[in-house]
Fold each of these.
Amino acid sequence: MASSKAVNIRLPPLPTIRDLVKLYRLRAIRQLSQNFLMDERLTDKIVKAAGNINNHYICEVGPGPGGITRSIIKCCPKKLIVVEKDPRFLPTLELLQEACKSSMEMNIEIEDIKKYNLEMGFEGAPQFSWFEAPPPINLIGNLPFSVSTHLVINWLQAISEKTSAWKFGRSSMTLTFQKEVAERMVAPVTHKQRCRLSVMCQLWCNVQYKFTIPGKAFVPKPDVDVAVVTLSPLKYPMINLPFKMVEKVLRNIFNMRQKYAVRLKLFKLADVDHTTRPFEISNEEFARICYAYKVICEENPGIEDYNSRGPKKSLEALS
Ligand code: SAM
């Protein structure tokens, strides 16, 4: 159980991340979009954005040479799992594992996070009801942008199904994104950046843009700035429909792919003005549109295969 008292571990003297990167010749591989954070104040700030993690179960995704990992260890979680795809980082991560072994458990998994079983990783963590406070479980990571966006969609689906890390309750996430993507994730109704990702995130989570990290803070420097975002699953999600169905309805609405007659029918049933442009539709209205789609599907058996992209089996076929 989390304690409110901040407890810090003092690590034995270790070479700096910059020295380790040099020592082990860990040159960042551009094709893998590797950009490292060497500034301890920044890695501490990212971990602080996750809240009090003392005594928590943490999964860090993409630790690389271990900058954020050190900041996590300093907060003394109960268990830390690091999931890193690139085996070159094993020696530096083992160094940290050795340094903290008397205070906490640290597991190193050399694996792709997309294949890693979080439910097994968090085995032994306390299970909280969805309606209680969040469990002492956090996902933290500075991943390549393409991976973090893909991951957040997969994790939203797991949240909607209460599986994976969300079998334990409303586990929270602290992740980095390209600044523009983070702005889209938090974009409110009528904001020019509002898109499908904004609505998907906001239907299931409280999304907070924490702070910006300038590109120049990374080695090598990426072409864009980076933002730290926290996602906390809502106690009462704004929708309770299959994730794929919601995803499909939103995709069609934002792409303006449905026929006029379909839009008229759907929006009328949802009590939303059919002339409203997608970015002007609120989360509540989107939820109603998805429920209206479900009703229409029930009345028209055969079109409800929302997993299919086939032309006959989508919103476009609803005429
Ligand atoms: N966390 C380190 C830091 O902040 O300095 C490294 C950040 S670097 C942007 C991203 C890290 O994620 C790299 O170490 C990369 O090898 C790792 N990575 C990329 N794709 C991954 C995946 N699918 N699963 C696990 N790790 C991944």
Note: The first strand starts at residue 36 and ends at 37.
Amino acid sequence: HAEDGYALWLRYRPVGQTWDARYTAAATQLVPAGGSATITAATSELNRGLRGMLGAVPGQAASVSRDGAILYGTPANSRVIAALDLPLKGLGNDGFVIRSVRVNGHRATVIAANSDVGVLYGVFRFLERMETREPLAGVDVRDAPKLKLRMLNHWDNLDRHVERGYAGLSLWDWFTLPEWKAPRYTDYARANASIGINGTVLNNVNANPDILRPRFLKKVAALADVFRPYGIHVYLSANFGAPVAIGGLKTADPLDPKVQAWWKAKADEIYRLIPDFGGFLVKANSEGQPGPQDYHRTHAQGANMLAAALKPHGGIVIWRAFVYSAQNSEDRAKQAYSEFKPLDGKFADNVMVQVKNGPIDFQPREPFHPLFGAMPHTPLMMEVEITKEYLGFNTHLAYLGTMWAEVLDTDTWQHGQGTTVARVLEDGKGTGLTGMAGVSNIGNDRDWTGSEFDQANWYAFGRLAWNPQGSAEAIARDWTKMTWGENPQMVDAIVGMMMESREAVVNYMTPLGLAHQMATGHHHGPGPWVHNLSRPEWNPVYYNRADANGIGFDRSATGSDAIAQYAPHVAALFGSLNTVPDKDLLWFHHVPWTYRMRSGQTLWDSLIDHYDKGVATVAQMQRTWALLKPYIDKQRFDEETAFMEIQHHDALWWRNASIAYFQSLSKLPLPAGHAEPP
Ligand code: GCU
């Protein structure tokens, strides 16, 4: 079924003549060390990969007895590996070494690590080298993840509806669990392990408390059993009001001893079923969810109470900073910082605070969240949205590797120059807790993500969580080779499309720093005119502030002063019209329609240019894609062709609707060469 997308980037297609002999010579024999479930998984992946790529499965042996053997395991389980004296020190549990060595007088490749999961990661990397046609002779790789927790957050409801999901129903079939462990759960674990993902939150942050009931916990335990050999720990979103909703208590006040005892007993119960349970993810006092503030307690008091229940078992609490309140008239972009910055140093040492990449909500572009670097005593985890809620759902081609790399590479200046967001994330503040979370785009569609190109976003998330300083382009290239094939012209063309795709979306939806212009509720399509929703900060007009005079949100010192939440260097950069990057202009400033950009163009003309550029880029991607027809199987080619038609149509819709609305305020003509909206 390689052509229906099910295999993801683990397609393992025949490598073809150029590579066949070379790879076959390097894969003549499998020599696993130890017999754990994880090593067994590594063996079965090698068999699957080698059978697919080379047409045959090498024999298995207890020791290296021929040239081309692959020896894999830990020094603890293999005296031969121990004797090779490999540089495993400093690689932690998850790192690995892949090296060409001589064993018993034979050429061999050793894949070694300090733990079996590290070995499995090494095996996946070995197979990836073959899939991307890298040489195996003389291989010498030493790698370890820079972040400890590399997690997916599923926003899956217990009725299998996926909040902001565009790829079918939830993978978790609660009705047939725990008895039926569908093979697809194993394939999910394989895909995640192949990119180093080691944690999964199974349920929506808008959490149904029922997940904590015994009948659901048994089902959760069954999934944890499937994922365990692949190094994946299960976490749950916990509803802070659960003691009331399902526990029969009258309060969920974190300082109430009965509430504390309830959570402690709940944690004990969970760990009896799932000894390596990861912990709780919590959305509290946000968008209607219950939380400690209902009892006049702080976020830290709420988080620490749960942390105390999990602590004896080694579990952690991941507390979300995505808060903004109906009672608060402060600029929404400022509220998370205002709430959490004063709590720095007040969280228990098994609490992480999970911060979205930007201060509003997963927009096509946002400046980085001001909390990064601003909580020197609190381990922060970055949360990105893999599912494209605000970027055209599953049909628009938008490679998000570039978006995440843009944030990760940004310098917060919080501890001097070079304190990039990536560096902030890599610093566990002495707790060893570091991480990144991605809101999953996975559902039960045959292709998992609702489109081929959205698989790239799952893949890129894993790679960047492993190494936040990784290159979005290199990641796109690896994914393209594994997903579409090795023809160099095709690879260049597809990578080129991917690299400009997200900027195209920014241009046709929300150019020059605009944000949150999407239609109400579903967030698909334009709605910059919407002004009558019950909460002001849900209205697009709150963000564009467009009127007869101009457009943009003044967050400088003359406005909401959100810039003051950044380090002085960054505040100065964003705060001045002379230095603010064009891409962030209307995020930080309100300017007249006739404002002169540094290019000499007026703001109005520049805005129109950006909308048109967005549409033109999509048209260009369509032309590029059409030329690739000879290289791509029919089903995947036809589907993407159709999806790009949808994207082009939507891009025009965005462009026309946005220009028509803003023109009704600016009353300005379109610059020469740009079509009036119909
Ligand atoms: C967005 C999204 C919601 C989600 C929320 C969150 O606002 O639209 O569906 O619940 O983010 O991250 O909690």
Note: The pocket of alpha-D-glucopyranuronic acid is lined by residues 163-164, 205-206, 283, 287, 322, 361, 389 (CB under 6 Å).
